[in-house]
Design a protein that fits this description.
By secondary structure, the protein is an alpha+beta fold. The chain has one domain: Double-stranded beta-helix, CATH 3.60.130. The protein is 27% helix and 22% strand. Strands 1-2-3-13-5-15-4 form a seven-stranded mixed β-sheet. A four-stranded antiparallel β-sheet has the order 11-7-8-16. Strands 12-6-14 form a three-stranded antiparallel β-sheet. It binds fe (ii) ion (FE2). Fe (ii) ion binds next to loops.
């Protein structure tokens, strides 16, 4: 039986099991590609999850790295309550400032207006219209968020899709000698590294100069829940591999960045109002839309993040903070 079929039938037990656990049989897990992403049908995220739904969602998330829901009726409070069932919810962002909606410091709004307020009016021009490239959320933290939950309030009639990639699969797809070699490497992640924010005259420059955020993480991270090894670098935040020359770092990172986003490891999500994407930042990268110049209409999404732990490499050594405090949730 293929992996895809197994995952669908795993949550559709035989009649005898269904009678004992009625909540399980009404969830459908629909994988969206060979490696990455599954749509989950039959769950209502606005109410406390029955234990069987919680378990099925968590298992699908760990396997497919990102899960999607449609037509959910969530407001800010409902999104936070949903997230809290899976772990402590952090403030919206280390640089959120006063941009969060009143009364909801956990909400990080993703829209051109919110980014202009947070980072300065020309920020989007500097980094391209659509924000940074492939990344996991806020990896410069010593304990980057474990999960992110993003819900759509308004989306354009077409375009504005988000892409995801499975970096456990990307790691496993490297040849063994390369895997062994990179298992021993570490890299610096720094907020603003990819956009030269430390030199920026925009608000983002003041933010990173007054409150810099940087850590040394293992290039290969052992996932704390699945035990999988994952490729833990990303082109938005990973500044350099430490202990090698700048030239060596650049070539190594180019190879790893390219490996992480090979199309076979990726999936693409088309937003609708009420859509929710829930991903594992420890095993997936995502890419904000690159096509805003070709679409019209508002795109307003709201994100929360769940507290993460300190990454650990295959050698058992944890990450080290360079600058910035741990990011705790409640
Ligand atoms: Fe992100």
């Amino acid at each position: 039986m293929s992996a895809t079929l197994e995952s669908v039938t795993a949550y559709a037990p035989a009649a005898s099991a269904r009678e004992k656990s009625p909540a399980v049989s009404d969830l459908r897990i629909l994988p969206q590609s060979g490696w990455t992403g599954a749509e989950i049908q039959g769950a209502d995220l606005s109410r406390p999850l029955p234990p069987a739904h919680f378990k099925a969602i968590k298992e699908a998330l760990l396997r497919w790295k990102v899960v999607f829901f449609r037509n959910q009726n969530l407001d800010h409070a409902g999104q936070i309550a949903f997230g809290r069932q899976f772990g402590p919810v952090t403030p919206g962002h280390p640089y959120e400032g006063d941009v969060a909606p009143a009364g909801f410091p956990e909400i990080h709004t993703v829209s051109p207006d919110a980014y202009a307020k947070r980072y300065g009016p020309n920020y989007q021009k500097q980094v391209g219209a659509n924000g940074p490239g492939w990344h996991a959320d806020v990896t410069p933290l010593i304990n980057p968020p474990a999960y992110s939950i993003l819900r759509a309030e308004a989306v354009p009639p077409y375009g504005g899709d988000t892409q995801f990639t499975n970096v456990a699969a990307a790691y496993a797809g490297l040849a063994e000698p390369i895997r062994k070699f990179i298992d021993g490497l570490r890299a610096e992640h720094r907020f603003g590294a990819s956009v030269g924010a430390e030199r920026s005259r925009e608000k983002i420059g003041d933010l990173v100069r007054s409150n810099p955020l940087a850590s040394i993480h293992p290039v290969v991270r052992v996932h704390p829940e699945t035990g999988e090894k994952v490729l833990y670098v990303n082109p938005s935040f990973t500044k350099q591999i430490v202990g090698v020359s700048a030239r060596e770092s650049r070539h190594l990172l180019d190879l790893l960045f390219e490996q992480a986003v090979i199309p076979e490891y990726t999936a693409r999500f088309r937003w609708e109002p009420g859509s929710v994407a829930f991903w594992d930042n420890r095993a997936a990268l995502h890419l904000a839309p690159r096509d805003f110049a070709h679409v019209e209409g508002d795109r307003i999404l709201h994100r929360i993040t769940l507290e993460g732990d300190v990454p650990v490499g295959p050698d058992g050594k944890p990450s080290e903070s360079i600058e910035g405090a741990a990011f705790k949730g409640a």
